Amino acid sequence: MAGSLFRKKSIDKILKDAQSSTEENGQHGLKKILSVKDLTFLGIAAVVGAGVFSTIGTAAADGGPGISLLFVITAVTCGFSALCYAEFASRVPISGSAYTYAYVTFGELIAWIIGWALILEYAIGNIVVAISWSSYFNNLLMDIGIHLPGWLTVDPATAEKAFREVSALQATGVTLDRGQQYVLDAYNTAPILFGGKFFVNIPAFVIVGLITCLTYVGIRESKRSANLMVIFKIAVVLFVIILGAFYVKPGHWSPFMPNGFEGVLKGVSAVFYAYIGFDAISTTAEEAKNPQRDLPRGMIYSLVICTVLYILIALVLTGMVPFDQLRVNDPLAFVFEKVGAEWISKIVSISAVVATTSVLLVFQLGQPRIWMSMSRDGLLPKAFGKVHKKYHTPYFSTIVTGILVAIPSLFMQSSRMTDLTSIGTLFAFVLVSGGVLLLPKIDEGFDTRPKGGFRLPYVNGQFIVPVLVAVFIFLFRTRIVHAAENLGSDSLQEILFLAFVLVAVVMGILTFIKKYSLIPVLGVLFCSYLLIEIPAISWIWFFVWMSVGLIIYFLYGYRNSNLAKY
């Protein structure tokens, strides 16, 4: 059984299966219409969203101006993974993203695990984005004088918590602002159902429904919508950076890391969440005109552009107001209100709505295509792989994704979802980076990739990686000793840290022996380290999620896998 759990699909077989699926659908297969510009725009559409308009505030409040360094570190980490994704995309130009890549290198069980983890990145992650969209949209409506009933715009847990906080503040005699009064009125006017206050987030539900309809109708319509939204929000971000620079006070940048590097690292989850999405480009491989050339370029271009924008935004935000005031849900609008430029905050609010809409669009495109690939392999029912005869989209998967996101967004609280989404994504990045090391080597004379196709440069890590691991162990020797001495009583966070040290040592030894390429090894190590910085409670929920996925695999996927027939 152990051997069958790790049965692999060869690259040739994956390409043949995709071709067979296309022939089965005939002229109703997926349309190849995406250029490198479209793919780059899809990447930017997925990356510049809730992160830059929301979570960056919390990260800046913890790390101060030094958060700009964390954007660099995270970008480098994502860059290593992006190069590994690019190598896979040029070798395996098929929809499915990290799931398909894991099937080639690690085998079926790991492929299923990563496919299940990707649901956290795309479908579950979109619940967070939908809730953020609802908040931005409601603020925008209030700015123009439209007031929806408060109990129709928030989940029950958030409403209860906000009401308690505002009530405690009111008891001190403080005059409530517009937002605080809104919270109070929303709670007091909420209807009673089954003995309790009833709250539901209707705007989040509606936007997911509309986006699902758009992705159902076709990739061409989705592409055009994404391109328009990207042009608008990039223009706004550049406008904010340029105008905000005139309000910057350099004194706010000192001290640069007020809470030390540990304070900067507290923002790992929030900052990394801002980068989630560039890998969604790889799910559209079968709709790209020249996937082996354009997919890698789209991923790398979008990552570079977004990194530059993020660093500039972080410096402008922390330069306009003291960093400790940025722990707010809408930091970009907040800083302009603080400096007396309220009219700019209105433009930012509009852009936030557009930005989060584009993220919803790209993620709702990505998840169905991963399920389509899993269905082709027999790990999910055939319905998930069906392509619509008129619209040329995986219509059943699109509907299921819409339901999976829309229903929970009505009632679910988003706070823990950000960490879970980051874990799922980083987990995928680790396996993609490690998978490159297991890809079969291609002799120069037999490389069938088209001219201009991406080729991951080989840099011998034989001595570099062991030295880097040794330096890390020296710098963190005190923490390692403490965690080892208290292994039985230490927190899960410290156990995860020791696990990372073990992984680093093993990778250092293997790299020295086998002369592994430096870039994928660094991708594994950097992403693994970011993983252990995510709070332990989120890991517990991640393990629960993975357990549910394994149950589904052994009840259905293992028995129905196409490879089980051979």
UniProtKB/TrEMBL annotation:
Keywords: Membrane, Transmembrane, Transmembrane helix, Transport
One family name in Pfam for this protein: AA_permease_C
InterPro entries xrefs: AA/rel_permease1, CAT_C
Domain of life of the native organism: Bacteria
UniProt subcellular location: Membrane
GO molecular function terms noted in the UniProt entry: amino acid transmembrane transporter activity
Membrane spanning residue stretches: 39-61, 67-88, 109-133, 198-219, 226-248, 260-278, 299-323, 343-366, 395-414, 420-439, 459-480, 492-509, 516-532, 538-556
A GO term from the CC aspect: membrane
Protein name per Swiss-Prot or TrEMBL: Amino acid/polyamine/organocation transporter (APC superfamily)
